[in-house]
Amino acid sequence: MVLKEDTPSSTTPQQASTTSPTFKPTVASTMPTISASNEWSPLRSLLIGRASHSLFPSEPPHMTRATMPSAHRSQFRSLNPFPAHIVAKADEELDNFARVMTERFGIKVYRPREVDWAKTNMGTGGYTGAMPRDGLMVVGNTMVEACMGWGCRRDEVEDAYGGFLQMIMQEARERGESVRICRAPKIVGRDSVYDGLLDLPDGDPDEHVDVGVHGPNESSEMGWAINNTRPAFDCADFMRFGTTIIGQLSHVTNRKGVDYLRAVIPEPYTVELLNTTDDHAMHIDATILPLRQGTLIYCPTRVTEEELRRHEVFKNWDLRPLPWNPEEETDEEDDGPPRYMCSKWLVLNAMSVDEKRIVVEEKQERFARWLEQEFGMEVVRLPFRHVNSLGGSFHCATVDLVRGES
Ligand code: ARG
């Protein structure tokens, strides 16, 4: 199953290649192994995913209907690989992204090992190594592993990032740093998270069916595609804003998942839930995008300014809705591969290098120009449409390990 070793790349260009052998990265002694408390301070160390062997995730029909766009749902079958040319291009885009981060910005980049996803999960198959944001999150000096809701992702962190986690723990130990990795409790055997939900009528697989509608702040789990029988959450349903972590309930994040996260993060971090109105909610990083301390862009069809302001942390922030609806744009200028798993709000899934610089998909010219003109950002345009096709963009495909001044 393990095809390639974890390959940290250093700040020297020759070593940024993903096929370079494992070696000890030379790091400035001032840089911690993991340390991050927001989404915008200068990025200094980063994990970037790998696309090879990605499969369409296979979950029960009610989950696919709740979270995936209707057009391609028949593809979401067990062991069905994404088209090979898309995966190959996605890997090129990820490698290029890694190279740019290393060479142009001096960021230390780690890459996960290559995994044959068809052989994982005891032969039932996994999904991808291209979306590490969903499974891992750094909060202060603690790395938290998600308690994933999806069965096909149960072993994803161990399979793709297990070796990487051991390596950073080893690095931290050698340097005498106090670092904590909070691995998720392992479920062996039957999972209860879909109990009571599997008998929902199948309906027409091409029809867009809501499993249920959830109102703001309702504690009822009935509208969700998972129940609340055990902690479930994806890290991508949460974002750091200093000591306040803002998150959402979703089809992959339940109340017990939020309680679990609250219990494992270090003091003085706290978690607050944003009431989003996204019937297909799964991951908050296409709903809000902080650009820097004090400035946040949001999707106005999924969250209101009033709701954001309810949170103390956003009191004096400049909160800006994206002034157009990407769903209403035609695809004429964008002849890229299908976004099998995401809406066009993925435009907000950009990744900050620091408070001035941000990485945006190169076809999103309207968005890039808006960021430049309206906010004075320096936009780094990189190709990522094939990664988008697999389910996410720059924010999803990364885990920030160290953010902050040296
Ligand atoms: N569910 C979001 C949308 O369709 C996409 C979120 C992707 N994020 C991620 N971390 N994989 O707009």
TrEMBL record:
One of its GO terms (cellular component) is mitochondrial intermembrane space. GO terms for molecular function: glycine amidinotransferase activity. GO terms for biological process: creatine biosynthetic process. Residues 1-29 are annotated as: Disordered. It is an enzyme of class 2 (transferase). The keyword DNA-binding does not apply. Pathway: Amine and polyamine biosynthesis; creatine biosynthesis; creatine from L-arginine and glycine: step 1/2. InterPro entries: AmidinoTrfase. The keyword DNA repair does not apply. Residues 8-22 have a biased composition (Low complexity). Keywords: Transferase. Its EC number is 2.1.4.1. The active site is at residues 234, 283, 396. Belongs to the amidinotransferase family. This is Glycine amidinotransferase, mitochondrial. It comes from Sordaria brevicollis. The lineage of its organism: Eukaryota, Fungi, Dikarya, Ascomycota, Pezizomycotina.
